DNA sequence: CCGGATCCCACAAGATACTG
DNA sequence: CAGTATCTTGTGGGATCCGG
């Protein structure tokens, strides 16, 4: 999913904006810092990542927590509502994995 | 889902473009003609509906069949691949129905 | 370390009018 | 009936630079 080769953006099923699905995946095992999120999400600029996180926060799917002890330290964590999306997310991933070859075949026979 | 009041576009889960989910729903009980689709999808212009249908066709989710017998007659039908999306679609609808109140609460407490 | 400010572009989506 | 043709607008996503 985080591999540029992996065609997760080819799937017709989307959760939130372009990166929200992957962000939620990154948070499923517990809170992560902003810079920790940037490691698997290398291809996202800081601004866009912030935008996505803010959108998730507005919808109550994620909480933002600022630890101001000496060094700046911001954590993001899934709320219960955010966790409730993990089920649908699994369904979406399973569908994509099962059918992406058919999708590719259909597209290339449609536009040679 | 087709009611303007129903907040299906509020859900973070989306299938295809803006109208694809509803189109697939309209086709789940069998083939439908273009003008039949326009009845429940009153708020979609013909152009946009055509665009969505063409996109679904390119991805192999829908087949377009022209019956040229006197009057023009075009039918759209789900392919097996398209039908395989009905499961994920149900999951998405179930999630939205179960959580849209929480979503609304989160949004209004975020931006008063 | 975690962003905000600014500028930019591509593309989705709609309004409107017209057609084989 | 089932679309096309044009035009316009809005917005998501990105590049780059700047700041507490």
UniProtKB/TrEMBL annotation, chains A, B:
One of its GO terms (molecular function) is DNA binding. Signal peptide: none annotated. Residues 6-104 form the HTH hxlR-type domain. The keyword Transcription applies. Keywords: DNA-binding, Transcription, Transcription regulation. It comes from the Bacteria. This is HxlR family transcriptional regulator.
């Amino acid at each position: 999913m985080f591999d540029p080769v992996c065609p997760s953006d080819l799937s017709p099923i989307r959760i939130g904006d372009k990166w929200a699905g992957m962000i939620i995946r990154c948070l499923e095992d517990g809170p992560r810092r902003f810079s920790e999120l940037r490691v698997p999400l290398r291809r996202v600029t800081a601004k866009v990542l912030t935008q996505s996180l803010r959108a998730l926060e507005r919808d109550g799917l994620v909480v933002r927590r600022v630890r101001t002890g000496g060094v700046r330290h911001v954590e993001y964590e899934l709320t219960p509502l955010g966790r409730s999306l993990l089920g649908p997310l699994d369904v979406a991933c399973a569908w994509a994995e099962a059918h992406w070859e058919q999708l590719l075949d259909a597209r290339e026979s449609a536009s040679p």
